[in-house]
């Protein structure tokens, strides 16, 4: 089994220089670093994590708390987090709350017991108990999705993204626009996207009617059922467009509309949010919003590492987005 001393001998440098190269700490010339890393790759040398933990008093593990592991948003964010942290010698430990806020608190305690160096939370239903658990943990913490008081947060611009989508539909000539949202317990997706839709309709002097609005649970199935409900309750006053707050619910809505003989976008335009991989392969392809989730994960990993290393980090970062105009409008 290759040791750090073996690497040092083969590279003709000191053990300390090898350690600096492996840990990105202290000065090592680029030529020497490349020589060391080439030998590491050729020998398959793996530093002892337990020895490293004893030396640095760190576990080399970051906990990631997800609202639902199966969603494409979660998987893309996690991909970005893992990509960045792996390059910096960290592993991630994933937990899935299944949209249960009590599990978020349980997992914070569990991850603390596992001595993780930091935690990244994709926040959904935020309450005082959760905030207390975060602050009481004493662990470097970062939130993705919405702003948490006193905690470094990467915040999606849900309000303006939803407003832009609604304005785009109005610009295309739609005045009767339905809406499929989620529970208001979710401050970002549930509240901000809904408020943006209603505010924009009101500013443009257009009606918002109760029978044009449905509330799902992020799933394709709920998009299908809420579209069914909207059509049933809107007989004689059917909207000409529907804004679903996630791509998955938009896909469900499209499926039901097709079953009922609606042509998209001729009879009903449909939009979503999320830029899912499936969105561009639907027939017709789905107009949506891209939040650049893999980049968000990379940024989250970078900022959390700064916090772990006691660097000063701002409390709030507003994330960018872009509208992707396709054939569903």
Automatic annotation (TrEMBL):
Residue ranges occupied by any HTH lacI-type domain in the UniProt entry: 2-56
SUPFAM superfamilies, alphabetized: lambda repressor-like DNA-binding domains, Periplasmic binding protein-like I
Coiled coil residues, start to end: none
Keyword tags: DNA-binding, Transcription, Transcription regulation
A Pfam cross-reference name: LacI
GO terms of molecular function: DNA-binding transcription factor activity; transcription cis-regulatory region binding
Alphabetized InterPro entries for the sequence: HTH_LacI (IPR000843), LacI/GalR-like_sensor (IPR046335), Lambda_DNA-bd_dom_sf (IPR010982), Peripla_BP_I (IPR028082)
Superkingdom of the organism of origin: Bacteria
Annotated Gene3D superfamilies: 3.40.50.2300, lambda repressor-like DNA-binding domains
Protein name per its UniProtKB record: LacI family DNA-binding transcriptional regulator
The organism of origin for this protein: Halobacillus yeomjeoni
């Amino acid at each position: 089994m290759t040791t750090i001393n073996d690497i040092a001998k083969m590279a003709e440098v000191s053990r300390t220089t090898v350690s600096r190269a492996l840990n990105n700490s202290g000065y090592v010339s680029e030529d020497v670093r490349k020589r060391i890393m080439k030998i590491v790759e050729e020998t398959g040398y793996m530093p002892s994590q337990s020895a490293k933990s004893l030396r640095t008093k760190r576990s080399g593990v970051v906990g990631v708390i997800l609202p639902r592991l199966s969603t494409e948003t979660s998987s893309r964010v996690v991909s970005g987090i893992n990509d960045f942290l792996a390059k910096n010698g960290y592993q991630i430990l994933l937990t899935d709350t299944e949209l249960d806020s009590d599990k978020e608190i349980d997992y914070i305690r569990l991850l603390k017991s596992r001595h993780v160096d930091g935690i990244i939370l994709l926040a959904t239903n935020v309450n005082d108990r959760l905030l207390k658990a975060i602050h009481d943990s004493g662990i470097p913490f970062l939130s993705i999705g919405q702003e948490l008081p006193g905690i470094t947060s990467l915040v999606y611009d849900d309000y303006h993204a939803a407003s832009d989508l609604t304005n785009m539909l109005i610009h295309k000539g739609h005045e009767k626009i339905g809406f499929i949202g989620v529970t208001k317990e979710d401050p970002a997706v549930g509240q901000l996207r809904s408020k943006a839709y209603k505010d924009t309709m009101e500013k443009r002097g257009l009606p918002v009617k109760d029978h044009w609005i449905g509330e799902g649970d992020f799933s394709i199935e709920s998009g299908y059922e809420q579209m069914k409900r909207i059509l049933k309750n809107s007989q004689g006053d059917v909207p000409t467009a529907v804004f679903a707050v996630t791509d998955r619910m938009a896909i469900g809505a499209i499926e039901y509309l097709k079953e009922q003989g609606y042509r998209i976008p001729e009879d009903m335009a449909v939009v979503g949010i999320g830029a899912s991989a499936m969105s561009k392969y639907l027939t017709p392809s789905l107009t949506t919003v891209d939040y650049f989730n893999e980049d968000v994960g990379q940024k989250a990993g970078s900022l959390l590492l700064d916090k772990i290393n006691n660097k000063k980090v701002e409390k709030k970062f507003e994330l960018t987005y872009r509208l992707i105009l396709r054939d569903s409008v």
